[in-house]
Predict the structure.
Amino acid sequence: MASAAEAAPAAPALPLRRTRADAGLWGWLVTTDHKRIGILYTVLGLLGLVEGGVLAVLIRLQLARPGQHLLVGDAYNAVVTMHGVIMIFFAATPILWGMLNYVIPLMIGARDVAFPRLNMFTFWLTLAGAVLLNLSWFLGGAPSAGWYAYVPLSTAFARGIGMDAYAVSLLIAQAGSAMTALNLLVTIVALRAPGMTWMKVPPLAWFTLGSMALVITAGLPFMVGLLSILFARWFGVGVYTPSQGGDVTLWLNLFWMFGHPEVYILALPAMGMITEVLATFSRKPVFGYGSMVAAVIAGVVPLSWIVWAHHFYVAGLSASANVAFSATTELISIPMAVIPFVWIGTLWGGDLRFTTPMRYAVAALFLFLIGGLTGLVNGNSAEDRLINATYWIVAHFHVVILGMIVPGILAGLVYWWPKATGRLLSEPLGAATFWVLAVGILLTFVPQFLLGLDGMPRRIYTYVPGLGWHGMNFLSTAGALIMALGVVLYVLNLAWSLLGGARAPADPWDGRSLEWTTPSPVPAYNFARLPLVEAREPLWHAKLHNRPVPEAPEDLDPGREGHLIHMHSPSAMPLLSAVGVFVAGYGAMLHSLPLVGIGGAVLALGTLGWALEDAWGYFLAVGAD
Amino acid sequence: MGDQALAVRGYPGTPARGRVGEAYTAYRLGMWMFLASDCVLFGSLVGAYWGIHSRLAPGAGPSHGFPLGPTTVATYVLLTSSVTMALGMVSAASGKVGGARLWLLLTLLLGASFLGIQGREYAAMASHGLVLGGSALAGAFYLLTGIHGTHVLSGLLWLLGALVNSGRPGRTPETTARSLQIAGLYWHFVDMVWMVIFPTVYLMPLAR
């Protein structure tokens, strides 16, 4: 990392001078560096993954044999709900946001994201959401109406603070997500390195663009729905209550208008990571780049807006609505299927190297086939009537997540780990971990497909003996324990690497894109000289021509003056603003208007400071003239 | 590359040429993206309102509950504030910061009047029993118009900040014009949203 010397502000003093701290704990709390924020997000997500994983193991232990008493009734419901909410919103989302935060600016040749302070604010919002949700364990019970929080289970029938915590924490986390999405969208559109025209944008950036476009659109109906749940519980707002003239299906629509695109929000970045990994370890350009871009931007994104009702075919939709949503659901499998073909074409005839990231990427190709093909079955409204609310559905969406999103994350983490930490991971341990996880995933969920076809309903905390379900349930639990072992091995590998892993060179994988032109770990300024992008895979192109990636001339590099690089100052205002949001959120959870007022005042103070503090940062001298 | 960070120089006073342009592009683009997102927010709210309204039995509409008169006045007030905002943006763009500040002040007054009329209407409706926790339609009405009102309030605070900022040292007519361009995008959008809410909530029931 660049060493920061004393800053001597020489300019006319503006009312608020930003802090210059970048060392120690305070340096991390006020940072605006996308790389540090990316690491914070990823660590938060890994903690969420551990919590969600422990809850999953508890669920499987309860179901391992008929008639167990480990988690009964509402305790089971709470654990299932928290497992789902944490895994989606506080594990997968922060890990992906963290990795994208770290990698995207480097890949597109930028020195930071477009709005560095907003970036830090969104991390604090995600953390505030995670803390508020988990506080409910200690304040009278976690939410227990499922991650889908169907009304009236989540309104009239949910006692205690759980569903208030759910609504408040997800409102805050979703607001954070929407701002992250806006930030990454603007970054990709406005801050690409000189020469990086649209058809030279790295695949991951395209997938991110699609995913973030979904976040800023599909997230909003969910927020309206959450606010209505909170207000229904707090003020008796009746939009969901039939006795007041309301409509319970309103929540179904608002929730799944977000809930379905959320699958693509998480899957698209993971697929982008897999695409990058496959190209690097096949030593070939991405096959069918144009069709891939078209499939994502013109296919998956718009179609994912119009499939939501397939989550509630049985809620009494008209036959014509069921037919229409079946048709759009089957239709989206076409652009989704283009991407595995892009991967196969990239592998075809490649000089394959089976490193740890490559193993996960290739596994995703196979596992996604299971998830995708089973989705064709329950996407059809006629077939869905037979398997709705059985373990088939549980198995289907878990295989999509664990067969696509999780391998994408695991591959990407291993792939970019040396860039972020400057250390290499153990390849033999990585390979062993891969096989443990692959066996665990299949052993957990293949039996669940069979249980579903055999009629075992989901959302039950136990079952009686003699139904023929105990064998498959036992296998599934064994698989979950094997998966847990895999996660432990994976984390051990990370810890071992941090403590004693070999030093990573700048380009440990023989990479193709711009992030591998920076030192490992990446200095605060990312690029001493912005690269001039000549080809879709700039580093690979330069390697083929046996020369370094060319530097952009100074007039194309707005952040540079001679050897001085413009840096964004750290800022304490995002932290202050987020403290306000946290207090207000805590107040809303407790239905306390005074606390909401205090939090709102702190937020207003933080926003005011944000608007008034100096905005232009400082200069870092990099290299000699 | 092997470059080493050697020293940190102080804050340079006036921002360098390229960065202002880059930041402006990013802020303007960010605002458009935010507005796209806000479209979906209000789309969901209007959809929820309309869905609940359409479940009412014929004749059981709220035409007597949502008085048209004062809100029509408020609608014209809000529309006029868009005109004054636009004139302020034009003044700032042609370098007349004093004129722009005057138009901005007028916009603030008009926006505050809109909120004042809406507040009075809320009080009148509540006295008729149309409260937040009452019927589903009342809940949907307060959610929709309340979130719009919150947008107007945020816009007022923003314009107030822009008014204060335009007088601070280090600001040029150019920076004022640019910040008003972005604030103006938001303000016009919030007014346009009202142009959807007003017919949906107040006029459509008359056509039934």
